[in-house]
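User: Before I run my own analysis I want an independent prediction to cross-check against. Here's the chain; please return only the structure tokens and, at the end, one sentence I can use as a sanity check.
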Amino acid sequence: VVEVCDYMSASTSVYAGALEAKIAVVHVQGEIMMGESGFDMTAGGTAGSETIIRALRKAREMENVRAVVLRVDSPGGDAFAGDMISREVELTAAVKPVVVSMSDVAASGGYEVAYRADRIVALPGSITGSIGSITGKLNMRGFYNKIGITKDEMGIGDKALIFSDYRDFSDDERRVIEEEHWAFYRNWVEDIALHRGMRFGEVDSIARGRVWTGEQALSKGLVDETGGQQRAVEIACEMAGVEDPSRIGLLHLPRPMTFFQSLLSGQLVNNLAAYGAYTLFREVVDGDGMVTVRHELDEGFVPGGLD
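Assistant: Structure tokens:
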């Protein structure tokens, strides 16, 4: 019998010194967003692009890290943040093996960060796929009218106010949005086909937002094998040429945030600051609730006052 205090105080230096090498386990957990990982009042825990990219670079540059396991548990999020992480996965895979381990969900942006890896392992019930994107905007004018807020808008250029929440898209604006949206989708499908050794039509037939379990994704070519994190580690060891996996240590990146670090993370601080600014602003505006956000320019206006 080993007392808990003795177990906790035992030195790990002998064990660590006996390790042949390390496998870095990089965690992508939560909604994918630009910036640092943290806590968001609406989304909960978030996977920040800068945090994940920094962890991948560290794993890539450490000489005693033989391979990387990318542990994904994310429903997606910001497409550009996901693409930035995916690019870093590709750069890392060019230096050392990268194996993806899909947890409960790795869909949409969760799959976006995964498909450029060397191998993808999913649990039989992992929710994955959802290859596609959604775009649009909310017309909030009716809501603003109900709470007594009006807005005047100013824009320089034909489509400067394309994402204004005070009106619908014009026919021309909708055409531009649709063209850009389909161009992004086609580029993504083409890149998946390239990295997964598939044809464009094959990927497109299982994409367009369709969601699959891990077993279904295996039969459709989106993943390579079903299994858990341990299986992903075993594959990483095989690809890295590790002769004795029992002497491999796992380096988990990025380091888990403490409770107070989560509370003080950028997203939460920004949300609280925005709410504080809103409360202060609400107290100083006139009682009629009229808020002028932007002024509409007269027809024929020339920037800078030039003729």
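Sanity check: The longest helix spans residues 171-196.
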